[in-house]
Specification:
It is a single chain. The protein has two domains: about 40 residues; about 190 residues, Jelly Rolls (Sandwich), CATH 2.60.120. About 15% of the residues lie in helices and about 40% in strands. The strands form two sheets. Strands 1, 2, 3, 4, 7, 8, 9, 10, 11, 12 and 13 form an eleven-stranded antiparallel β-sheet that branches. It has a two-stranded antiparallel sheet with strand order 5-6. A hairpin with a 2-residue loop joins strand 2 and strand 3. The longest helix is centred in the last third of the chain and has 22 residues.
Length: about 240
């Protein structure tokens, strides 16, 4: 009986489901080109997001090297190492013209991402490729290949999201699950023809909430509840007759 009562109290004490904490990182702002290897940080609802730029510019354009993360009124873009810091329009956007540009987002807490808002500066396509997962903070991609993102780091991807929109803003919808790292760029899809250019205007998601721990023991069978009720009734009757 004592064990059953302890189980009932323990189950009642389990925390109620917590409401999700929404996250929106707005990446627009006053113009700033940035320098090769720089980073930018943004904070929302207690979560810090660190942003770095990368490009396939080493060893015959097969390995990643640091780029410059620039910021403009329509969002952030990347000048890769071959283009040089402060590269001109449209190459200061995230693009796949000549070299592939990527932006890596790392979060101080585990998050679940729901979308990335793109804003092309001009009449350009906005096809994208991205990887998402859990990785060490302060991750350095220098010298890695695109296959290393999944093969060595264990990120999920590549995921390709294509669109026929030409020059229109759009939101890339995603359901990443629990992650702390997103590597996002213009599409790398094999056999794809054409160039994509865009700024990244904002990221949307929510703070990841782990599921509550299971009860300490199994839930009692219905017969156990009946036995407990009979025991409580007998205890009450005993006390009643004892007072007479």
């Amino acid at each position: 009986m004592k064990k059953t009562l302890q189980l009932l109290f323990a189950t009642a004490a389990l925390p109620l489901a917590l409401a999700a904490t929404p996250l929106t990182f707005n990446l627009t702002g006053s113009s700033s080109n940035g320098s090769i290897g720089n980073s930018r940080t943004y904070t929302n609802n207690g979560v810090t997001m660190t942003v770095t730029g990368w490009g396939l510019t080493g060893n015959g354009s097969t390995t990643l090297a640091p780029g410059a993360v620039g910021r403009w009124s329509t969002g952030i873009g990347v000048c890769n190492g071959s283009e040089g810091a402060g590269c001109s329009s449209p190459h200061h956007q995230v693009d796949n013209s000549g070299q592939f540009d990527f932006v890596m987002f790392q979060f101080s807490e585990t998050v679940e991402l729901g979308g990335v808002r793109l804003n092309p500066y001009g009449s350009y396509d906005t096809d994208v490729t991205y990887w998402a997962g859990m990785a060490d903070g302060g991750l350095n991609l220098a010298g890695m290949t695109l296959s290393d993102l999944a093969g060595i780091l264990g990120l999920n991807g590549p995921t390709h999201d294509l669109t026929s929109n030409n020059g229109a803003t759009r939101t890339v919808s995603m359901t990443t699950g629990a992650v702390n790292t997103l590597v996002f760029g213009a599409t790398t899809l094999a056999g794809y023809t054409g160039n994509d250019y865009f700024k990244i205007e904002k990221l949307m998601g929510e703070l990841h909430i782990p599921p509550p721990p299971p009860p300490p023991n199994e839930i009692p069978e219905p017969s156990t509840y009946a036995l407990m009720g009979a025991g409580l009734l007998a205890f009450g009757l005993r006390k009643r007759f004892a007072r007479k």
